[in-house]
Amino acid sequence: MKTINIAIDGPAGAGKSSVAREVSSELGFIYVDTGALYRTVALYACDNDIKSEKELIEALDDINIELNFISGTQRIMLNDEDVTDDIRTPEISMGASRVSAIPEVRKYLFDLQKKIARENDVIMDGRDIGTVVLPDADLKIFLTASVDERASRRYIELKEKSECPSYEEIREDIIKRDYNDSHRAVAPLRKADDAYVVDTTYMGFHEVCAEIISVIKTKLEIDD
Ligand code: DC
């Protein structure tokens, strides 16, 4: 049976993951956070003191990543260890942006993403989901917001976790990651031509979720 696949792409801090999580749970889909896959490769490189691209490519065979979905919530396993919480640091965010530019890393993670989408009704978020991973997705959404708004959301989020880079540092990181993610040669961050754009700069979380749920229901002809 054909599964339903919804792609959500957009820059760092646009609110993709919180929105995709909420919308998935509302519609009974599995939410797949593909950024977590790149973060896990970056964590492996960091923990194993891997310094060069060549070393990382050679190490890919030793990296076994699995996604488990517990009550719809994604847990990510790296060589049988749950690293879901360990990949959420500013250092790993930047590392993920770097390793994601390596074509071999993208190829390695591509099959895993395709398999999950083939087997489940998913909302998958990332940078290249609508353009490369799921070009035939049932619906593509591009979620964006201004740099200042994204930096201020990240700042509030990190402040709550008591890791506290300054607002300026977070803003600089976001600008750097936007640049890396949209200028790499392979599968750069780009809006798919047929994506529905939601600019969340002046929108509240619930407003964004309501708009996306409504677009999905219309597209998939789901009754309220
Ligand atoms: O969504 P995130 O911030 O967790 O993603 C971390 C990095 O991974 C991001 O800077 C770019 C990369 N990424 C990617 O290249 N392709 C994806 N589909 C998802 C993330």
Notes on the protein architecture:
- It is built from 9 helices and 8 strands.
- It is an alpha/beta fold and 224 residues long.
- It has a single domain, classed as Rossmann fold.
- Strands 2-6-1-7-8 form a 5-stranded parallel sheet, sandwiched between helices. Strands 3-4-5 form a 3-stranded antiparallel sheet, with helices on one face.
- A hairpin with a 2-residue loop joins strand 4 (73-78) and strand 5.
- Helix 2 packs across helix 4 (90-99) and helix 4 runs parallel beside helix 8 (167-183).
- The radius of gyration is 17 Å and the shape is globular.
- It starts with a strand and ends with a helix.
- The chain binds 2'-deoxycytidine-5'-monophosphate.
In CATH terms, the superfamily is P-loop containing nucleotide triphosphate hydrolases
What is the number of helices? Answer: 9
Low-confidence stretches: none
Along the chain, the helix and strand elements come as EHEHHEEEHHEHEHHEH
Any idea what the shape is?
Answer: globular
Q: Which hetero ligands occur in this complex?
A: 2'-deoxycytidine-5'-monophosphate
Report the biggest beta sheet as strand number plus sense, adding barrel if it closes. Answer: 5 strands, parallel
The overall strand count is: 8
What distinguishing features does this structure have?
single chain; 8 strands; Rossmann fold; globular; binds 2'-deoxycytidine-5'-monophosphate; alpha/beta; five-stranded parallel sheet; 9 helices; three-stranded antiparallel sheet; about 220 residues
